[in-house]
């Protein structure tokens, strides 16, 4: 409407002036006609008529003049209105459509068709809109793709990422952050207000204590974290590194090195001590010479056994999870080898099996069984050690039982640790390395199984090793 009024008043004045000038020009033509031949006759008649005009006729003449002027004004208004309407229509309709398109763009509508207008000027305006929209859409798609890439990177990171504003409201976080904290986070809320666990609140408060870039080494729910805090422009970036396994590994490595050093140092000290005695005293009598050499030999064997067990444990720890058992182990030959190994021992070894084959690698089966049997021979006062092998579906169970003494309950979990022993061997010549049961535990783990210790009816110990069948390799894996 405003456009129409503006155009109307813009056109009305010139149109009226044109009409007035046209009438004025017509009057001038009439006067010029009086100067032509016979004009004196017309003027003479006009003067005679004017003298004869009555007052009524003059009034009528004025009325007609006013009527004529009124019609002239109406004609100007009508002409101006018609022209204004046509021009307003040509401008307002395209403008209305462009305004609707702008509203759809603002609303995020991506399925927009730009019309082609008959008016060249409005078509150019529409084309400018279209180019701007295409450029904006392209940039928006690029930003969206970058955002998805960044979101994907955040998702696969092992580090927890939290982004806050200066009021500690959460602007972004990934799932690892939720997993590390053990609490749900809510976008737009203050990070302290969004959790209801006091341990997490205390953890976050300690992180945000400083108002500058910092690194914290903190514990949360028995997990260790390195927390890096970076203050950006109007934002705070928090990165959570779970270093629990690394810390445990460092502790384990320190303990392992200490244990290995201690275990190696003992036999080495014995060997070096007696060897130095022999070197410093060449006149040792035959009896003592034989005794010293026996000690050196036994400690050399112990040292060799420790090294072999360490290497075996290391090898087992580095067997890939995807190993397979292509052919089952035939128990006849394996049990015959075990029986021969312990033949002549003071303690009798009895073997029983309710199956002829088991889906276990021969190397793993023999290592597991000899370590359990050796342990019973070294630390048990039994007269008989029983070995039972059974199989049901995909499960193989190996039981090794002795007659005691029973291992205390508080020691049952620790005996599977490296270099841990409950007590000294009843026979010094059969002293173990403290790694046998740890090796057994690793072997059962390779088969997704377990090793447990039970007290049996004879008052002794029964070690129960459970192993599950490994899937055979496929043709594709064999070709690879």
Automatic annotation (TrEMBL):
Domain Histidine kinase: 259-471
Keyword tags: Kinase, Membrane, Phosphoprotein, Transferase, Transmembrane, Transmembrane helix, Two-component regulatory system
Entry-linked InterPro entries: BphY/WalK/GraS-like, HATPase_C_sf, HATPase_dom, His_kinase_dom, HisK_dim/P_dom, HisK_dim/P_sf, PAS-like_dom_sf, Sig_transdc_His_kin-like_C
Annotated catalysed reactions: ATP + protein L-histidine = ADP + protein N-phospho-L-histidine
Major enzyme class: transferase
MF terms in GO: phosphoprotein phosphatase activity; phosphorelay sensor kinase activity
GO CC annotation terms, alphabetical: plasma membrane
Listed transmembrane segments: 7-25, 68-88
GO biological process: cellular response to phosphate starvation
Enzyme nomenclature, EC number: 2.7.13.3
PANTHER family: PHOSPHATE REGULON SENSOR PROTEIN PHOR
Name of protein: histidine kinase
Source organism of the structure: Geovibrio thiophilus
């Amino acid at each position: 409407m405003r456009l129409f009024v503006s155009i109307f008043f813009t056109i009305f004045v010139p149109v009226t002036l044109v009409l007035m000038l046209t009438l004025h020009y017509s009057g001038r033509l009439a006067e010029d006609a009086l100067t032509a031949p016979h004009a004196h006759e017309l003027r003479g008649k006009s003067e005679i008529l004017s003298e004869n005009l009555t007052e009524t006729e003059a009034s009528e003449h004025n009325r007609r003049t006013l009527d004529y002027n009124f019609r002239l004004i109406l004609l100007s208004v009508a002409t101006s209105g018609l022209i204004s309407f046509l021009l307003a229509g040509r401008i307002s309709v395209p403008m209305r459509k462009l305004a609707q398109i702008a509203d759809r763009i603002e609303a995020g509508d991506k399925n927009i068709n730009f019309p082609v207008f008959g008016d060249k000027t409005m078509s150019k305006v529409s084309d400018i809109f279209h180019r701007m929209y295409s450029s904006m859409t392209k940039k928006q798609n690029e930003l969206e793709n970058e955002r998805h890439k960044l979101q994907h990177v955040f998702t696969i990171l092992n580090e927890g990422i939290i982004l806050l504003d200066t009021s500690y409201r959460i602007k972004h976080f990934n799932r690892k952050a939720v997993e590390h904290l053990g609490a749900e986070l809510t976008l737009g809320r203050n990070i302290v207000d969004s959790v209801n666990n006091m341990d997490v609140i205390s953890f976050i408060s300690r992180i945000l204590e400083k108002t500058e870039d910092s690194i914290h080494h903190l514990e949360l729910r028995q997990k260790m974290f390195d927390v890096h805090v970076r203050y950006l422009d109007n934002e705070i970036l928090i990165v959570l590194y779970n270093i629990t396994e690394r810390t445990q590994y460092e502790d384990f490595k320190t303990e392992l090195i200490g244990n290995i050093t201690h275990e190696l140092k003992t036999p080495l000290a014995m060997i070096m001590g007696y060897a130095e005695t022999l070197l410093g005293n060449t006149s040792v009598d035959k009896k003592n010479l034989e005794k010293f050499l026996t000690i050196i030999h036994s400690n050399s064997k112990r040292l060799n056994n420790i090294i072999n067990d360490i290497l075996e444990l290391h090898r087992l720890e580095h067997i890939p999870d995807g190993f397979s058992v292509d052919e089952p182990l035939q128990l006849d030959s394996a049990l015959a080898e075990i029986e021969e190994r312990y033949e002549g021992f003071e303690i009798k070894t009895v073997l029983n099996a309710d199956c002829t084959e088991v889906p276990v690698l021969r190397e793993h089966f023999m290592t597991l069984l000899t370590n359990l049997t050796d342990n019973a021979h070294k630390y048990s006062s039994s007269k008989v050690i029983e070995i039972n092998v059974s199989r049901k579906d995909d499960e193989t169970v190996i039981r090794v039982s002795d007659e005691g003494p029973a291992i205390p309950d508080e020691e049952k979990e620790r005996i599977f640790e490296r270099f841990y022993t409950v007590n000294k061997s009843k026979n010094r010549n059969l002293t173990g390395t403290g790694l046998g049961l740890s090796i057994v535990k690793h072997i059962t783990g390779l088969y997704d199984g377990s090793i447990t210790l039970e007290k049996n009816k004879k008052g002794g110990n029964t070690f129960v090793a459970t192993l599950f069948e490994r899937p055979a390799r496929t043709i594709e894996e064999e070709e690879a």
